[in-house]
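[09:14] KT: can someone run the structure on this one? pasting the chain below
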Amino acid sequence: REALRVLEVMGLIRTGTGSGPTAGAIIIGTPSGGMSALLRLQLAAQSFAVEDVVQTRIALESAVVADLASAESPVLVDVQRVLAAMDDESLSPEEFVALDAQLHLALAEAAGNGVTVAMMGGLRDAIEGYVARGIRRIADWDGAASRLRHEHHRIVELIGEGQAEAARAAVTDHIRGYYATVTAPTE
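[09:31] RB: done, C-alpha cells below
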C-alpha cells in the first residue's frame, strides 16, 4: 500500500475505492509528471557525471530543434515569449539561468514529443545544477549572457528558416560551449 501511495504522489497511478472500472490502482496514460519525477529521483540517487547529462541533453535537444526546423509551421509562441524575457539586460544571472531552462523546455514542448518533454523535465534539476554552479565561474557574466542570448536567437532563427542540420549544430555548439566555459581551468 505504501508503494502505491508513493506512485500516486509521483503521478504514475491514480487510485479509486470501491468496485468497477475506476476502482483500484490505475496507471495514468500520460505520466509525464511522474516520469519526470522518477527520472529526477534516479538522477539524484545515482549522481551521474555532468558530462553524461550534457551528452544526453545534446542528444535530446539536437533532435528537438531538428524536428522543429523540419516541421511545416512550428508554433514557437512560448519560445518567443521566453526569448523576449531573456533579452532584458537587467536580469540577474540566476533569473537568466531560470529563463534559460524555460526556453530549452519550451523548445521541447513545441516539438510535441511527450517523452522528450518528460525526459527534459527529469533532467532539469541536473541541468540547472551545473548551469547555476557554472555562472559563479564566469568572470564576465554580461559578456557571457550576451553571447548566450545571441546563440538562443540564432537557434530559433534557424528553426524558423527550416534549417534542421544548422539548428542541430547550433544547439550542440551552444550546449558544449557553455559547458566548456564553466569547466575551463580558472586562472
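[09:33] KT: thanks! The chain has two domains: 1-30, 32-183.
[09:34] RB: yep, looked fine to me
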